[in-house]
Each structure stands twice: as C-alpha cells, then as structure tokens.
Write a structure and sequence with these properties.
The complex is a heterodimer of chains A (171) and B (192).
Chain A (H helix, E strand, L loop, with lengths): L2 H19 L4 H18 L1 H16 L2 H15 L7 H6 L4 H15 L4 H12 L3 H12 L7 H23 L1
Helix pairs in contact in A: 3-8, 6-7, 7-9
Chain B lengths: L1 H17 L4 H38 L1 H8 L1 H7 L7 H16 L4 H15 L9 H11 L7 H9 L9 H25 L3
Helix pairs in contact in B: 2-6, 3-5, 5-6, 7-9
The chains are: A mainly alpha (171), B mainly alpha (192).
Chain lengths: 171, 192
C-alpha cells in the first residue's frame, strides 16, 4: 500500500473529468502533449550518459573508498559516526549506488539502531544533487548553473546535521 | 558542473590505475553506460504519459486555478517567471509531484518547467534565478513519505519501519528552509 497509489486515480481521473466538463478535446490534446514528452526524454540521454559514466568510474575505481579513508580520522575526532561517511559521499552522486550503501549499513547495524535510523532519515531527506542538475539543466542547454550546486551541497550538509540531531532526540 | 564532472572522471581514472584495476574503465563503458539508455527508455513512456495528461490539465484551466491559489508562495520564490503562466504552472506541478513522490513524473514535470522557464530566460546559457530556486528546492528533497527507505528498513527487519517518517519530514523541512534562504541570499548577491 502506497500513498501515491491512492493519489494517482484522483489525479488522473480528476484531470480527465475536468477536461471533459470544459469540453477539451482530451484525446488529441493528450497525444500532442505525449509527443513532446517523449522528445524531452530522448533529449536528456547525453546528459545522463555523461553523469553515469563519471559517477560509476568514481565509485568503482576505489576513489570514493579512498576519500572515505582519508577523512575518517577527522570525522571520528569530532564524534561523527564513520559508518555514515560512505552514504554521505555517494548519495549526492547516485541514487542507485546509495541504495547499496544503505542496505549494507542496515544489515551491519540493524534497522533500529541509531546509525540505521540516521542513515534512513538521511536517505529520505537528501537528494541526488549532481544527477538532478545534469538532467534539469541539460534538458534546456544551460551551461552556467551559477550557485545551484553550491547551495545544493549546503542543503546536503543541513540534511546530515538534521538527520543526526533528530534521530538522537526522537528515539 | 564542468568542474565536478572533470574532477570525478580524473579521480576515477587515476584511482583505477593506482589500485591496479584499470579494467574498471572498460567495465563502466560497456555495462554501466548501458544503464543510462535503459533509464531513458523507461522514462520515455512515463514522460509521454504525464506530458499528455498535463496538457489536458493546462487546456482545461484546472492548473490556472491551482496556481492562483498558490500565488502568494510562488510570487515570493519565483519572482522572475510571474509573467509566464505556463512556467508558474509547471513549477507548481513539479514541486507537488516531488512532494508526493509520484515516480518519475517529477522528473518529467521538472524538465517541462525548465523548458517553460528557458523560454523567458534572457541569457540562454545561464540559469535564471527561478531555475536555480527550483533545482535547489528539488535537491533538498521534499518528498513527504520516503517509500523506498521504508521498504529497505522493513527488509532489514525494523520493528516499526514507518517510524522514520516524522524525523524525515523534520529533517527535510529543515534542509529545504536552509536551502531556500541560501538561494535567496545568493540571488541577491549576484547581479544578473
């Protein structure tokens, strides 16, 4: 049972029903819009290839592991759970890869542990920053994203802090 | 984006050589890139469907009603697209789809919103304030119910897999508010 499964019939039904009332030619308007949608989907392929290549290479070559090892002493020093480091680095890069990481965390520490809970909250409150930027800006050919990535990363840090603090005091 | 891309690849290349597994590069080229085609193919149908449905919603005027209702908020956050009704509507739909986590439709609507905003963007290579704001709000993740995480927790044997919903919403709201504040700050600081 998913909430979105309950929302869908209302959204789809509601839009079609309202369209009928307003005498919109719903069938041909739908096809016309669908054609545009299919075109946009194909247009983002090059950007997805670019980002997937870079991210997979970075994670699989061991570069990600190495960076975790380097900053681990610092984070342990300030009392930050080292187990979450990998998730923090991988999540902004790749949604798929971060699933693998959180699965390992949940297996090793248990879903109801502090680490497990923080990881879950973090997973739900952070987003794949680079993928989002690549696809959204790529689709319209924006090359200068200005402060977007910077603020995206700040938001990531805010998510981390919030996840740790909330899990500490709520459970 | 250019720097990030370059950095990721350079690190990846260097490490694949130093860790003694240069075969990783060809593995990524052969297998992992294939995934991007699968991803796009899986997006084509859902994007076509939602774009079609959204076109009906647009034509029937139901979107205009919704965006009038949310006008006080969008006027504050997306100041420079207020002249384009289509852009405002698309932005609202993107944010709603993200909040309810309706699958890939959020991506579809997001791209639609970007296209509408690009139409009224003065400099076609540089992101407008509203584009940055939409991206930043999306990046802070505004999904209300993290379904996939709940699934993962129940697979891992959590006693009550859904007990992270409230903490997640709190953390998400916090990071979203912080992001919006920073976005507004940089918006004012940079002269376009």
């Amino acid at each position: 049972m998913k909430i979105s499964d309950f929302i869908l019939p209302f959204v789809i039904g509601g839009i079609l029903f309202y369209g009928m009332i307003k005498e919109v030619d719903i069938y041909s308007v739908f096809v016309e819009g669908a054609f545009d949608g299919a075109k946009s989907a194909v247009k983002i392929l090059p950007y997805i290839i670019a980002i997937i290549f870079a991210v997979n290479l970075f994670i699989q070559s061991g570069a990600e592991e190495f960076i975790v090892k380097i900053i681990q002493p610092i984070t342990t020093f300030i009392g930050f759970p080292a187990e979450l480091l990998s998730l923090i680095i991988v999540k902004p890069l790749s949604g798929g890869a971060s699933y693998g990481v959180i699965q390992t965390i949940l297996e090793n520490h248990g879903a109801d542990s502090y680490i497990g809970r923080s990881a879950a909250v973090l997973m739900g409150s952070a987003e794949t920053i680079f993928y989002t930027a690549a696809v959204y800006f790529g689709a319209v050919g924006i090359t200068n994203s200005r402060y977007t990535i910077k603020v995206g990363l700040m938001s990531h840090v805010a998510s981390i802090i919030a996840a740790l603090v909330v899990c500490k005091y709520m459970f | 984006m250019k720097k990030v891309w370059f950095g990721l690849i350079t690190f990846g290349l260097i490490f694949s050589i130093f860790s003694g597994k240069p075969e990783v590069i060809s593995k990524v080229l052969l297998f992992d890139i294939q995934k991007s085609v699968d991803l796009v193919l899986s997006l084509v149908s859902i994007m076509a469907f939602w774009s079609g449905l959204m076109r009906i919603a647009e034509k029937s005027g139901i979107l205009d009603k919704l965006s009038n209702f949310l006008k006080p908020i969008t006027r504050l956050l997306f100041k420079d697209i207020q002249n384009s009704k289509e852009a405002v509507n698309a932005v609202i739909m993107t944010i709603l789809a993200n909040m309810f986590g309706i699958g890939n439709s959020a991506t579809v609507l997001g791209i639609k919103a970007m296209e509408e905003m690009q139409k009224i963007n003065k400099n076609k290579n540089v992101a407008s304030n509203s584009m940055c704001m939409l991206l930043i709000i999306n990046m802070s993740s505004i999904q209300l119910i993290p379904l996939s995480v709940i699934k993962l927790r129940s697979d891992a044997g959590a006693v009550n897999p859904t007990d992270i919903i409230l903490p997640t919403i709190i953390a998400t709201c916090f990071s979203t508010i912080i992001s919006i504040l920073f976005a507004k700050y940089y918006e004012r600081k940079s002269i376009l």
